[in-house]
Amino acid sequence: MSTHQATWTILDLIRWTTGYFEEKGVSEPRASAEILLAHVLGLSRLELYLKHDQPLTPEELARFKALIVRRRLGEPVAYLTGHKEFWSLDFLVAPGVLIPRPETEVLVEAVVDAARKGLPPDLPPRGLEVGVGSGAVVVALAKELPALTWVGVDISRTALEVARENARRHGVAGRLYFLRGDLFSGIKPGPRFALVVANLPYVPRGEWEQLPKEIKDYEPPEALLGGEDGLALLRPLIAQAPGYLTAGGWLALEVGAGQADQVLQLIKETGAFTEMEAWRDYQRIRRIVRARRL
Fold first, then answer.
1. Which 3 state secondary structure label does DSSP give 205?
2. pLDDT digits over 235-273, tens only?
3. Going from the N-terminus, what domains does the chain have, and what CATH number goes with each?
4. What is the Cβ-side half-sphere exposure of residue 154, based on CA atoms within 13 angstroms?
């Protein structure tokens, strides 16, 4: 960025930064430029273009340049701004917590659809999410299904702190209870839940080595790595889930590309489920596996 230019307008900076990011191989260069600049200025991305000729102050320019450097080195935009949109809601994120992905919105869709198909009538409706991360899924579900109360479990203390804050920000904290634990640990077995939902780590070790720098070097490995074949946590979760679901309740899982058939087979082998199916994400990958407890 030239230090000789007298003033930099919003549009100048979007154009220059987009080109710079393209040159450096930064993913989504224009979106990165717009989101970071909007963050610095306290504007929406649309407002950047409505105020395209607005010059930046020296202080704003210095803050933006610092973010450009960090983004060029690979730091994810969501960690730089502390925010990520999911399900048309704004979520806080922080280093040490997995950044919500667009494909995970299909998990929310599949669970909402399951609930509308009918939940067991013989208990107050409760849902459980195993591995809540930032809380994006369970908060979105609490917004969409206001009749349910939810329990969210995660092994990460940092993730639970962020999830609790997101629940407060979106007005659903009164129906969400968070526990620190590994899978179902800390929850007494029994037919307690009408819904069990999980987006557990499912990246196989071999694929981990091929992930982009901004994922591998910045996001928590424990939130992504699923062992040698990606199913190290999904296997015990599926085996234990029937002991926590009430008859007629639903299990919904996010899985990796190419894993749906294996996961469906694991569910079938329990002998405890019917209506087993896979849902495709926006890239036509069979991303969500769903089944109903007998």
1. helix
2. 999 999 999 999 999 999 999 999 999 999 999 999 999
3. 10-73 (1.10.8.10), 86-293 (3.40.50.150)
4. 28
CB-CB contact of 291 with 277 (8 Å): yes
- Measured CA to CA, the distance from residue 57 to residue 124 in angstroms comes to 56
DSSP 3-state of 195? strand
**φ, ψ (nearest 5 deg) of residue 126:** -130, 145
Cβ within 8 Å of residue 271, ≥6 positions away = none
Paired strand residues for 9: 55
- What 3-state class would DSSP assign to 18? helix
Q: Specify whether the CB–CB gap between 102 and 78 falls below 8 A.
A: no
Instruction: Compute the distance between CA of residue 216 and CA of residue 209 in angstroms, rounded to an integer.
Output: 8
Residue that has been written with the tokens 């710079």 in this structure? 20
Spatial CA neighbour of 130 closest among 205, 239, 208, 258: 239
Q: Report residue 73 as tokens.
A: 């080195």
Q: CA 45, CA 18: separation in Å to the nearest integer? A: 14
Please tell me the number of Cα atoms within 13 Å of 6 on its side-chain side. 0
Question: 19-70, pLDDT tens digit by residue?
Answer: 999 999 999 999 999 999 999 999 999 999 999 999 999 999 999 999 999 9
Please compute the mean of the pLDDT values over residues 121-139 and round it to a whole number: 93
C-alpha radius of gyration, the chain, whole number? 21
In this prediction, residues 157-179 reach a mean pLDDT of 97
266: helix, coil or strand?
helix
Number of Cα atoms under 13 Å in the Cβ half of residue 86? 30
Other Cβ atoms less than 10 A from the Cβ of 240: the count is 18
